[in-house]
């Protein structure tokens, strides 16, 4: 990653993003069909189907921040331009995923618990993650020169990595209203059969959509910086 050229990677992404979009359409049709046809939950009824958006968005909000924090460290240590561009491309998509988690979780919580919000460890740590994403995105757009904004946002991303294990293990460390892990846990997933299959297909569907958005943002940033560099040298 450190030695990759942003222009080369941008060209590669631009070439294959149409394939990603086709895969997204394929997975979305399959996922939507399975969600519609799957039986309602005995206790929660149809409301449990929010899970197939809420859970993948939650996974991705953590995964994307982990990647963003990692490339930020690489950018700060090795002064790697491509690392900063990747972090900048991930930031708005990660923010969107975390907001999706909060919205779908509030709706699901109201239908299941009778309230939109409780200040338990999982929900509060997820809210903090969303604010960190928001702060990162705002820092990227708060300075006139992108190098200053990249540096400031990267520092926040590195600090924000501390919150990831809190979000992940909050249901194990504290007593919370939020249910524990259903898939990635010791002893294997508690979901089985069609439910687990539908969840994983939904996850890959949203993952591919996120990758498609991130690639487009990456290509746009790369082209913009290349244009600004040519304009500066010509002047």
Description:
With 235 residues, the chain is mostly helical. It has helices at 6-37, 51-78, 81-113, 121-140, 146-160, 163-173, 193-234. The model has no long low-confidence stretch (mean pLDDT 87). It has a domain at 47-173. 30% of the residues are buried. It is globular, with a radius of gyration of 20 Å. It is 77% helix and 0% strand.
Task: Describe the global form.
Answer: globular
Along the chain, the helix and strand elements come as HHHHHHH
Euclidean distance between termini CA atoms: 31 Å
Task: Detail the poorly predicted runs.
Answer: none
Number of strands: 0
Number of helices: 7
Helix vs. strand class = mainly alpha
Mean pLDDT: 87
Overall helicity: over 70%
Radius of gyration, Cα only, in angstroms? 20 Å
> How would you sum up the major sheet?
none
